[in-house]
Design brief:
mainly alpha, single chain, 2 helices, about 80 residues
């Protein structure tokens, strides 16, 4: 027999907002951390001024950080979903 679905209160079958917030806050913190880390190379990109080589380098580095961060967030969400299922 399958267990109760996550995020629903088993007593009255309503949405359990406390559990939703409990699961959403760590994901939001992880996304915010990735954005803050990616902001540094993008800020440096605009700070180097007319040096085009450094500007391109910092732009690529910022995009790389965002891509890796998106992968980490996705892996976290998938692992947490597997634990909840």
């Amino acid at each position: 027999m399958p267990s109760d679905p996550p995020f629903f209160d088993s007593a009255d079958r309503s949405l359990d907002t406390d559990q939703l917030l409990y699961e959403a806050v760590p994901v939001a913190k992880l996304v915010a951390l990735v954005v803050v880390i990616a902001f540094v190379p993008f800020a440096l990109r605009f700070g180097v001024g007319r040096n085009e080589a450094l500007s391109v380098l910092f732009g690529v580095l910022g995009q790389f950080v965002l891509a890796v961060g998106a992968g980490v967030v996705l892996l976290y969400v998938l692992a947490r979903a597997e634990q909840l299922a």
